[in-house]
Amino acid sequence: MKKGNAKALLPIGVFLVMYLGLGLLFEYGMRIPMGFYNIPIVIAFLVAILVACVQNKALSFDEKLAVMGTGVGDKNIITMLLIFLVAGAFVGVVGRSSAQSVAYFMLDLIPAKFAVAVLFVVACFVSTAMGTSVGTITLIAPIAVEVAQASSYSVALCVGTVVGGAMFGDNLSFISDTTIAACNGQGCAMRDKFKGNFWIALPAALATLALILALTLGKETTAIHGEYNLIQILPYVLVLAGGVAGMNVFLVLLGGIVSGGVIMLATGQTAATDLLASMGSGAAGMFETSMVAILVAAMCALIRVYGGFDALLSLIRRLFKGSKGGQVGMGLLVCAMDVATANNTVAIVMANPIAKEMSEDYGITPQRTACLLDTFSCISQGVIPYGAQMLVAISATAEMGHVISAFDIMQYLFYPYLLLVSSLAAIFLVKKK
User: Fold this and answer.
1) Which residues sit opposite 96 in a β-bridge?
2) Dihedral angle of Cα 172, 176, 177, 179, to the nearest 10 degrees
3) Who's near 351: CB < 8 A, 6+ residues apart?
4) What is the pLDDT of residues 342-357, one digit of tens each?
């Protein structure tokens, strides 16, 4: 085993102190709304890279640039960046009105007494199709408030149900940032990760649905109606089907872009010039995520060369024994990163190189590692009160005239809590094939 150097982990510490510290100061000290997201994460990583460059006097600055170039030029990093951009273009082309079409269609089709359960199912489907939990919450939370207003259900229950369902797709979707980051970081096929991940997420989702039905059945409610256009759902269905079938992710997304473009033009939803602009804005929406992936790859390359990962792995080996212990260690690692950064994609990108070495050391398959990173990061991201998902849910609810706090919603986040139970059961109770 290589000799580690704990000092090499200083850049990560600098980033966490700068990002988390300023975030806490802005959010709670200065009471700035969404203060965590006023911190320029790219600048925080640049400072961390500067610290990494100052360390390790054995290498010249030019040699350190070469090390960073090698880290950024890794095949998995390049693949990840390209998928980010194409996925962004797909969402830009299709638009997000189809999400509301799904919600209103199901609310119109299914009896009103099942309205809260419908909200959960809709949020699961939409987030899986769109690949974004924040986008799902933005679109479905106002509908959840409508359901609460037309019934005796609490607003916090309806909104919490949507947040939980949104995290289902964040974890499973083929075009989710977290899935892309986890699979490419570990070098495994998305389909393989999906198959293992599905059997962890499904029991949690079914248990959540049963719990929601137990809490809501027997209460009177009024039917909810809204406009919907089912043809807009088709591109999402094609992307889901192609992903499950194991098709190349680029071909799947390109097929979604083409079908979405044809539908949007044929139905008069947009003009050709606007469609191109939407593609551009969708891809541009992924620029910060892509830049973070590049900076993390550069920083981690410097840390690895200086012995930081060897030191961290040595500590993990002492704390966690055996394959099951290693899997728990991976989960705790990415959860800690997520709590510190309030961004599950960034947490996965940061944890990827460490988890990859852990998987080799503990004999854990790449697809299992990707599954654990994605699942545990979504568990923590779904419940932290200062995460983007929670803040967007509170903001969307306030715009509808209802003021609730993150702690009002947290008691109804059944899915993330049950996903944790299901994940631990998969580690400790399910026998390895």
Assistant:
1) none
2) 30
3) 330, 333, 334, 337, 373, 377
4) 778 888 988 898 899 8
